Structure formats: C-alpha cells, structure tokens
Amino acid sequence: MNRVWVVGLLSLTLLTACHVAADAPVADLAQATGGSRVTLDQVQRVGAPEKAADGQMLQRYAFQPTVQPQVVVSAEHGNWDWSTQGELRVRVQNAMDWAVTLTIDIDGAGKDQHLHASIGLPAGPAQTVVVPLHAVSPRAQGMQVGPPMPYDANGQRILLATTVEGAVDLKQVAAVRLGMPAPQAPQTLLLGRVETKADDGALQDAYAGIIDRYGQYTRGKWPEKIDTDEALRAAQAKAQAAPAAQVASGGYDTYGGRTDVASFKPGGWFRTEQRGGRWQLVTPEGHAFFSLGVNAVVPDGGRSYVEGREGMFKDLPADSGEWSAFYGSSDNRRPDASSTSGIGYNHGRWFDFYAANLYRLDGKDWLAAWSTRTLDRLRSWGFNTLGNWSDDALAKAHKLVYTRSINIDGEFGNVSSGYDYWGRMPDPFDPRFAQAAENAVTNAVKEVRDDPWLLGYFADNELAWAGQGLQGRWGLAQGTLHGEARSHAKQAFIAALKQKYGEPAKLAAAWGITLPSWDALNATNFPAPDPSEAHPAIATDYSAWLRQYADMYFRTVAEAIRRHDPHHLFLGGRFAVNTPEAVAACAQYCDVISFNSYTDVPQHGVDMAAVAKLGKPALITEFHFGSDDRGPFGKGVVSVWNEQQRGEAYARFIAAAAQDPNIVGAHWFQYADQPTSGRLLDGENAHIGLVGITDVPFDGFVKAVGDANRKAK
C-alpha cells in the first residue's frame, strides 16, 4: 500500500504470514509478538492488554477526533495471499456507552482494489466482527434491509457486515484498515485477534432459518409476536373485541362527511370546493370530507420469494394440499428500474405469509372474515377512505369511500430523466401512449363510473419527473435530448427549439455550445448542456419543454377520463419527485394534486405556498413512519426509534395536514407490515403497518392513529 504516514505514528510488529492457510491469523492487536506491521494513524494504544469475559485478550485503542483515525495492519513482507479465504474476523469490544461506527477497509495491491464495510458497533460485551471477502448486501439476499446484528452463534456474538462494497484481488491483499469516520471526541475500542476463515459461513448463518412459519423474525422478541396457532387466534380475538366501542356515531353523513359544519350543495358525486380560503372535498350529500385513507389494504400483501433461499425459512408448509393456494410464481426482474437493482431472489416460487395466517385464523372462509374485520377496524380507527392498491371487494362493500388507480402500460416510447426508480418516463408524444391511456381508462372505469362511493382516479404512480442532484430538475429535458433520434419526445422538443430559434447557430449562441446543424441536435446521445448563469436560455428552454411534456401527459389522461367518466375526480399522478412545471400542469388538468410525501410533516415535503397559487387542493397520498422493534428489519422511508414514536409522529403529521387550508386528506402507506424476507416487487421489508404479518394490530400505534384521525375529521 502506497501511503506516507505523518511524523509520530507508531509501528508495531505482530504475527502473520504472507501465504495464509485455512482459518489463519493475520494479527493480534492485543499481543505485539512479531510478524505483521501495525500502524496507528491518530489512534493511541492505552494501557495493558485486558482479558475479556470469554478469556480472550483485548487491547484498548483510543480513536482521536480527526477526519479518519485508523489502525492499519499490513503484511511484513509483500502482500497476503487470501485466495483460499472467505471472510475476515476481528475480535472487538466497544468501550463506550453508546454505539459507534467502525469502518473496515481491505486494500488490494492494485488500483481500485478495495473492499469496504461500515458497521454500527453497539455498546456491550466483546464480539466477533465478520467481513465477507467479497461484495455482499441484503439486496442480494432478496431484501432491502438485512437482519439486525449481532446475532448469537452457539453462544458467540457475531456481528456480520451485511453490506460489503467493492472488489479485491485476494491473491494480493495489501492491508486491513480499522477506522472511525470523524469522531467528535475520543472513542475507545478494545481490539484483539484479526484472522481469516476459509469459508464465509457467517454470511450463510446470518440468514439461515430467520423466518418462522408465520413470516416473523425467529431471533427477535416483541409484544405482538405469535408462536402458536392458538396464540394467533387468541390475539385476534382480543383485538377484535376492542374496536366496536370506538366507532364514531353521529356527526357524519353516509360517506363520512361532517354534518356538524356548514354544508355545501349536494351534487351526487365527490367534488372539490374552496370556501373562506380553505379547500374541501365535498361528499355527494354536500358535506365537508377530509380524506383519511390507508394504501394497500389487500389480503395478499405477504408474498415473498422462497425459491432458491429455502434455508432462510423454518417450517414452510408443503406446497400441496390445503397450503397450495398460498404458493405461486412470478418474475419481477426489471433491468430498466433502479428500484430492483441488485435484488436477488426476484423470480420463481413465492409463499404468501399474510394470507396463510388469515387461513390459520378463519379456515376456508378466511377471505370474507378478513374483509369484514378489516373494514370494521379501519372505520373504528377513524379512517374513511381506501387508498391506492386496495382490494376491489372492500370497495364494493360500500362502507368506506375508495379510490381507483389507472396504470398506463403498453408498447410506447419512454425517456430517461436520470432517476428512473420505477422505470423510465412514458413518452406522451408517442401516438401509442394516447391509445394506451384510452385502454387503461376504459378498463379502470368499468363498474365504477356510476358509483358515488368512488372518490376519484389516480394516474400512474411516482413517475420520474425529475432526475437527481443539483441539476435534477432538468433531468427529463436533458434525457429527451440525449435520447434516440426516433424518439417522439425528442422530435417534439427539437421542433419547439426550431420554432423559437430558426437557425442552429442562434441556439448554439444562446446555449454556449457548438451546433453545426439541426442534425447534430437530432443525434442519439446528444450531450445536453447543464443550465448555467452564463447561459440562462438553457434553463428557460428546458423549463418550457418540461411544461410542454407535462401538459401533454396530463391532458391526454384527463381527456380520456372525461370521455369515459365525467362524474369523478382526477386525483393527479402521486408525485414522489416533481418539478414546478409538472405540478403546474397537473393543477391545470387535474382536480386534485397528489403527493407522496415522506417527511415529518407534509409542508416539509411539498411546497404548499406554491400549491396555494395554483388554484387546486393537495392530497397527501403516501406517508409513513417505521421502526425496527416489531420484527421486520426495515424502518421504512421515514424512521423513528420505537413503536411509541410511530404514533406520536403520525399524530403530528395528520394534525399538520388537517390544519393546512390547501390539504384535503392524507393516506397512510400501508395497512400491513411488509414481509420480513422482502416483498415481491423490490424486496422492501419494513415495519410500517397498522397490523403485522399475522394480522394482529399494533395496539398502541392504532390507538394513537385513531385519536389523531378523530381530531382531524
């Protein structure tokens, strides 16, 4: 490793060998006995070696408050050959009373030869930190977030680095660096043996048998965890006895509109109206309605791939007989969407843990029982709307207002904005898009166009209206020009530029680029410039194009909806990323502007001052707060520390939404926890539900939710 150390660094000589045999020592940071070179970079060795509870020796090292204090272990002569090794093991104990971040870097001899792991090291007894000697991630195991660490392996605390980035030639390993990123004060670790192991058994063990027959994490404990079918039925019976007394009585019309405030003129359908500076949804009977909804209220949300990783699951039922109904197969490989990048176990056979638990509860009539129970629960918890992707059968029960999604699929062009989380943007200038929108709307309005319980329609979900980074606002404009010459969107953009500038030389001067001809602009992979202060015309032209693009999209969809259903609201496109141009176009053609806002309060995710100027109300169509103390490993998009804080965060968000004169509702994502082993779509596995994978409600949370909802309505 080529590195110049500052004056005053300490070098020690410890035991090692260049050609490492199976399960061989690299160094012992508690015993300076010769062999390896250890360099302390802004780290101090403190006191004498100490014996840990398990009898192993450890040495204290104080990491100083600098940019990257580190202990560097390198071979005495040449480099190590670890080509037969599978993992690096470091014996370590955090001497602080709080968790610290430990980084472990393994450097190869060549350029760009490097493995990196970052580990949250909890306070407590000594443990063995294990780093696989190759890139790994929970995503490769089929889930977004891996199991909590450390775990117990036959009485030994193992803390596996579940994410390792990079690559290294194991025949030429130059150094191991144990570091800490920019501590603000000295942090002390006790370090011991550093060694390699011939296999990566810890990686296999970390994921082996971690999901039980109910879809729960086997190694964790929490109040709602179920261990027998009898306990499942008892927990469900207890939960079912509670809600009935909480159902609100009086003060609401048939659809949940408030009868205790001044009414509006009945219109037979849901509509929007502004009164006294405040926007309202108005029920068919003419009463103010604040939409409190839940997304993905479905009985099949517990599907998770099992094929190829059967060892992860304990006591999976046979895929024949009565349990065969809960198995299926699908393929969610999508190379064009970054949401699935790196996700392993993304096709093949799956098992639905949630539906199987419903069957355990209610037998062959489980679906009807679930429908009745779920609708009663939602109403008792103060909800009045079924949000996006909810079960159609629930909507037909006419106990809650519902929404309908229009998903525009088909063979038409697309454009990259540079974000493309769910895929590239549809090209609304492609004539095939208009036909696809027509088909999608026709299918969506079937059986619902004359139903007054329908609040309205969403079009698509979280489209890639913007890219990432400082220039992300312009991503769709730059992606349009960068695209293929045959792109309909690109041809429309070029036509607009020709109309404005007339000659390529004038455009070149305005943008500060070389453009010998219009054909040069038409070339595939044209290097679209970034806007700059020196050339303000770029931002002006990009902005005009973004508005033209959004106008074309929303106008096409809106016109199709109006043709097939003139009664119901067009609720917008559920923005996750957006631009001012896209939001303004939505306001022009939609009745409501919908935003998925993952923030502490909606106003921190949506520019409500800008929305107020557009003359249309806003609906928050996704938000949530997650924690990792109820089984699933992920904390969702917005995390809090524990279950109690989930309820507090929910109440704060709903209160802020209800007090805003431009917001007409908020919809929670989602009804049930995601599968601990990862959902089919993209491996998400977060604790964000009102109920668990066993359909048992989280009592403290739903009580807080109910209280907040009743105050908001």
TrEMBL record:
This is Beta-galactosidase. Gene3D superfamilies: Galactose-binding lectin, Glycosidases. Keywords: Glycosidase, Hydrolase, Signal. Residues 487-600 form the Glycoside hydrolase family 42 N-terminal domain. Pfam families: Glyco_hydro_42. PROSITE patterns: PROKAR_LIPOPROTEIN. Residues 1-21 form the signal peptide.
